[in-house]
């Protein structure tokens, strides 16, 4: 049965911060209908007009940054610096990218046909909006993964209905309010509150679903969308490996590892979730990572801290379960390894684990927490084999001073993106395509494909000469079918003798 209300709690204090009515199936249908009406007018606006509104939205978000920061920290339990750095900074840059580049990404393309007889036609491929895009998103970046995904959809001429996570719906609501105040047409960007049932209803009415979330829900979303044959893009989980080669700059590698694994308390789809280090530098690397991890300050958002808490109790329990299972099977905790006893909310201590292997869940399943499992490997091939031994393939990183070698290795990693001597940055370059392989999903966000996915391609072909009839038209005769065969030989056969024979036959016919 569908929920009637959604209760939102601050995961740092466990206090209730909001209770909102949940959208029922009939509300979702009505929202999509309103969106469809708004879209009919919106698709007639120019890219310039859309971009102008995007810039106004950006100013609104910046002017109301304090309010937005409070909402985001309250619903996620993250520190302010992280909220501004990871969410607002990303969104403001993304607005610049979509405002400037959308027209180019969706420019109509003139096509020169390969077949000589078709060269006389004018052929143009165009992009058209799909209609109403349903965005279903998770809780780990409540603004980036809602409003951020809506930007290219709207720039492409669509209306958007967002179903944010039931754990963190407030910043999406705030973002939609800002969009309305910035002048976006009424109902072009709507937010519906609810859990999975509300998401299911959205799949039953929208023209496309852009889903970000877990693999398991992604499969259900695709099944439901298959009933209406609507397209989906699926941005799912990851178990991102980091490879540290023996020639790496260990100081940079250790710093990137701690940042890449602990940012947002490890609750990022592209977090570093497992680390493979060549034996000669293993101990030095581990020592540095442990030292840096011990220096991480954890606590409530208003204090000067580096990381906050898990966004839900379920997430806290999942991490606890993975670490406990690993320890029971022989893993050693070098720092952390438990719920933070000093803090009230869902805080798990930043943790470094060693003596682990791929039979443990902490190495095979997505953790989504502040856990750094480090494995010693004999050589590069072992590192590569283990890195690719995963059902996920979202992102990866390699550390080496030999950038040519690292590049070759990057090409062999089964991963949607690879950072060399860096971590996490692939998400924050909205001009570069980002997507997963294997069970990390398909479809891209960012770059040209990140907006084209919200469009239908239409090819328009124009006859230039206006002849009374064309060669393949009726009536079909024996002579015509012979001529077609000769023409095929003339144009397509690789042997010159065949070509000449076909030409002669054609001239005689
Ligand atoms: P989730 O799959 O539990 O939920 C995601 C969204 O789907 C929520 O809004 C939820 O209400 C909705 N939902 C649940 N059941 C549904 C159904 N049957 N039909 C339609 N909607 C339904 O994921 P989560 O726990 O909120 O988020 C964490 C996951 O998101 C992690 O696996 C993480 O890796 C992934 N993620 C991926 C990316 C990426 O870009 N690849 C980015 C961020 C997060």
Cα-atom radius of gyration: 27 Å
**Which secondary-structure class do the elements indicate?**
alpha/beta
Give the strand content: 15-25%
Percentage of residues in helical conformation:
40-55%
Tell me which ligands are bound: nicotinamide-adenine-dinucleotide
Number of H/I helices: 17
Number of strands: 20
Low-confidence stretches: none
Average pLDDT across residues?
A: 96
The first-to-last residue Cα distance is 74 Å
In spatial order, strands of the major sheet run 12-13-14-11-10-16-17
Basic shape: globular
Characterize the biggest β-sheet: 7 strands, mixed
Task: Give a quick summary of the entry.
With 509 residues, this protein is an alpha/beta fold. It has 17 helices and 20 strands.
Description:
By secondary structure, the protein is of the alpha/beta class. The chain has 17 helices and 20 strands. The strands form 5 sheets. A 7-stranded mixed β-sheet has the order 12-13-14-11-10-16-17, with helices on both faces. The protein has a 6-stranded mixed β-sheet with strand order 7-6-5-8-9-19, with helices on both faces. Strands 3-4-20 form a 3-stranded antiparallel β-sheet, with no helix packed on it. Strand 8, helix 8 and strand 9 form a beta-alpha-beta unit. The radius of gyration is 27 Å and the shape is globular. Nicotinamide-adenine-dinucleotide binds next to helix 7 and helix 8.
């Amino acid at each position: 049965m569908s929920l009637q209300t959604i209760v939102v709690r601050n995961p740092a204090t466990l206090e209730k911060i909001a209770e909102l009515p949940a959208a029922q199936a009939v509300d979702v249908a009505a929202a999509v209908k309103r969106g469809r009406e708004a879209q009919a007018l919106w698709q007639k606006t120019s890219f310039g007009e859309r971009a102008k509104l995007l810039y106004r939205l950006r100013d609104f978000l910046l002017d109301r940054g304090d309010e937005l920061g409070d909402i985001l920290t309250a619903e996620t339990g993250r520190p302010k610096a992280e909220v501004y750095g990871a969410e607002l900074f990303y969104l403001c840059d993304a607005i610049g990218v979509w405002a400037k580049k959308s027209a180019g990404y969706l420019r109509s393309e003139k096509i020169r046909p390969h077949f000589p007889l078709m060269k006389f036609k004018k052929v143009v491929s165009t992009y058209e909006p799909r209609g109403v895009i349903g965005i279903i998103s998770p809780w780990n970046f409540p603004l980036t993964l809602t409003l951020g995904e809506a930007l290219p959809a709207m720039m492409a001429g669509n209306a958007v209905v967002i179903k944010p996570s039931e754990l963190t719906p407030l910043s999406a609501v705030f973002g939609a309010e800002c969009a309305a105040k910035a002048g976006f047409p009424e109902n072009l960007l709507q937010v519906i509150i609810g859990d999975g049932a509300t998401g299911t209803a959205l799949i039953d009415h929208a023209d496309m679903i852009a889903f970000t979330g877990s693999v398991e829900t992604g499969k259900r979303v695709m099944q439901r969308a298959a009933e209406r044959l609507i397209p989906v893009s699926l941005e799912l989980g990851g178990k991102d490996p980091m490879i540290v080669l023996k020639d790496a700059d260990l100081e940079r590698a250790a710093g990137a590892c701690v940042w890449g694994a602990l940012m947002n308390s490890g609750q990022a789809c592209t977090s570093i979730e497992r680390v493979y280090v060549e034996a000669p530098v293993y101990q030095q690397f581990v020592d540095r990572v442990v030292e840096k991890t011990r220096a991480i300050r954890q606590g409530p958002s208003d204090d000067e801290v580096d990381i906050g808490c898990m966004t839900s109790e379920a997430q806290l329990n999942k991490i606890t379960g993975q670490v406990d299972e690993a320890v029971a099977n022989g893993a050693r905790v070098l720092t952390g390894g438990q719920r933070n006893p000093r803090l009230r909310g869902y805080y798990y201590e930043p943790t470094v684990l060693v003596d682990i292997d791929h039979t443990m869940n902490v190495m095979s399943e997505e953790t989504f927490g502040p856990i750094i499992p480090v494995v010693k490997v004999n050589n590069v091939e072992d590192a590569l084999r283990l890195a690719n031994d995963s059902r996920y393939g979202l992102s990866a990183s390699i550390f080496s001073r030999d950038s040519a070698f690292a590049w070759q290795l990057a090409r062999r990693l089964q991963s949607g993106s690879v950072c060399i001597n860096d971590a996490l940055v692939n998400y924050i370059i909205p001009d570069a395509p980002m997507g997963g392989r294997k069970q990390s999903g398909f479809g891209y966000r960012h770059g040209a494909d990140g907006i084209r996915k919200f469009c239908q391609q239409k090819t328009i072909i124009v006859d230039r000469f206006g002849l009374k009839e064309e060669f393949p038209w009726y009536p079909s005769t024996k002579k015509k079918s012979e001529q077609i065969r000769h023409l095929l030989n003339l144009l397509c056969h690789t042997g010159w003798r065949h070509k000449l024979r076909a030409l002669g036959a054609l001239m005689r016919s």
